[in-house]
């Protein structure tokens, strides 16, 4: 017992020392940031009052370093975000802002349901905008070596915003990584794409819903939104479908997918329109299948997550009356631990299938490697790490699920 107490005290002392060293480095970094801000022409008030009083946020470093123990299944992600309550609230807001959203669609080409869906996923329609002090968070990340250059730029952009909009540091609140307002724009996106939507000659994404909606439309338009096109559709795949064709990187003309036997989920035939699309299977071949178009890639530029973009698209559809998924994802699927994903990546690399960095994340390289392994071993090549595939890789060897 005495040994345990001693160990705990030593660990605590080490942590305090680490924080102290970090704080010393932070003070030095702030001085360098002040010099940079002065060179970029910021006012003495920004340099000497704002920057000089920023505080180190250890929690931000902790969040930046933290890795979730489990990767989410699509079912878990989807059902937590596209809820009956969120759909109802989104429909109410769609109706409330209907004339205004119609004007945005006419000007930017982005239907209002997508803007409301992004709003819903980002901040639950403004119910949670984040409480972290943006400037302190960005300074903390700028003074951390992992992504210093990126966050230094974002900090300077935040200072530009502060000065341009005559804001006070305390009003700049948001996520731990610096995203702000109803639409959770990073400072650079705020400065580049945020616009005055309510006509008061100011831009405030925290307090003005109209500013946030207009800014979202402007942002998506600049990202390449294709007017008059959907994000995608749920589809049905034929029994003999070659699952190795799935993934965002494999794009075919709609007519080619039609010839391969792909149909819409309601049984309708795919039209012969001059468009390209990809097939996605977020929950493997036993779950829902989607045909996604160019606007899906635009949505991915807002947030580089297929799950996120699918949730936005499906929420947007349900806001205007679309039903539930024809083939819903199974809630019985178990999320994989990061350790299991790391073991899978190691095994794939060992067998000659390049899964990329061993990071425990199911990225595009890992899915591509898994798809190749499955195809080479007589498994369904959907790039999904189901129990059969993991057992074949001996990643789950010894578990009852492999017996």
What does this entry look like structurally?
- Helix content is 51%, strand content 5%.
- The chain has helices at residues 2-39, 44-50, 58-65, 74-81, 84-96, 98-108, 112-123, 134-142, 148-164, 187-193, 209-223, 254-259, 294-302, 306-319, 338-350, 364-376, 387-392, and strands spanning 132-133, 173-174, 232-236, 252-253, 263-264, 276-280, 289-292.
- It has a 5-stranded antiparallel β-sheet.
- α7 (112-123) packs across α11.
- The longest helix is centred in the first third of the chain and has 38 residues, at 2-39.
- It is globular and about 70 Å long.
- The two termini are 41 Å apart.
- Residues 1-21 have low confidence and may be disordered.
The helical percent reads 40-55%
Please give the alpha-carbon distance between the first and last residues: 41 Å
**Alpha-carbon Rg, integer:** 24 Å
Number of helices: 17
Residue windows where pLDDT falls under 50 for at least 5 positions: 1-21
Structural class by sheet pairing and helices: mainly alpha
Mean pLDDT: 91
Query: From N to C, what is the helix and strand string?
Result: HHHHHHHEHHEHHEEHEEEHHHHH
Numbering strands along the chain, what is their spatial order in the largest sheet? 4-6-7-3-5
Please report the total strand number as a whole number.
7
**Count of all domains:** 4
Q: What proportion strand? A: 5-15%
Q: Which sheet architecture does the biggest sheet show?
A: 5 strands, antiparallel
Q: What is the molecular shape? A: globular
